[in-house]
Design a protein that fits this description.
This protein is an alpha+beta fold. It has helices at about 1-15, 35, 145-160, and strands spanning about 40-45, 55-65, 70-75, 80-90, 100-105, 110-120, 125-130, 135-140, 170. It has an 8-stranded antiparallel β-barrel. It starts with a helix and ends in an 11-residue tail after the last strand.
Length: about 180
């Protein structure tokens, strides 16, 4: 019986572990989720198979009628010549005034989404980490933020031991207009 219990608990522990922040990294405080809603342009990211090769990547956050957030990530795949989009859901983890969210694109499996730096005045840019240092995104409200802003975010991520030399800059304005 003890073996069955520990096997049943292990997946739950793994799911919880996937929603944390990397060691030594903290999510921003005084976070205002309502101000975070809307469109964000992906300026740079660490490479992952689910985004590999995509350009003109955006993320749109809105309130779901059933509660929580609706998340739509979209990008253009130049090799396939098509737009790709995935819809997910998100929710605050604990205190909503802390920039820690859990995001799911695949059923009951949630991953950590941690806003670790943010333009608190205008919510014009954000530095976002996943549960480990292999997930990092630089987001902005416009597709071409000032280079000094991007560099400051890269420098901040470097101080937190993220592999910034592996960041991929995401081109914008290169894909055809979506047909929606």
């Amino acid at each position: 019986m003890a073996r069955r219990t520990s096997c049943a608990v292990l997946p739950l522990l793994l799911l919880v572990a996937c929603t944390g922040t990397p060691r030594g990294v903290e999510a921003v405080r005084d976070f205002d989720l309502d101000r975070y809603l809307g469109r964000w342009y992906e300026i740079a990211r660490l490479d992952h198979s689910f985004e590999r090769g995509l350009v003109d990547v955006t993320a749109d956050y809105s309130v779901r009628e059933a509660g929580g957030l609706r998340v739509v990530n979209r990008g253009f795949d130049p090799q396939a010549g098509e737009w790709r989009a995935v819809e997910g859901r998100a929710r605050s983890l604990g205190d909503p005034s802390v920039g820690e969210l859990a995001v799911s694109f695949f059923g009951p499996f949630y991953g950590g989404y941690n806003v670790i730096d943010l333009d608190r005045e205008r919510y014009a840019w954000a530095l976002v980490a996943g549960p480990t240092r292999s997930f990092l995104w630089i987001l902005a409200r416009e597709p071409d933020p000032a280079p000094e802003v991007v560099q400051a975010l890269i420098d901040r991520a470097a101080l937190l031991d993220f592999p910034v030399d592996e960041l991929i800059r995401v081109p914008h304005g290169v894909a055809p207009e979506p047909e929606d």
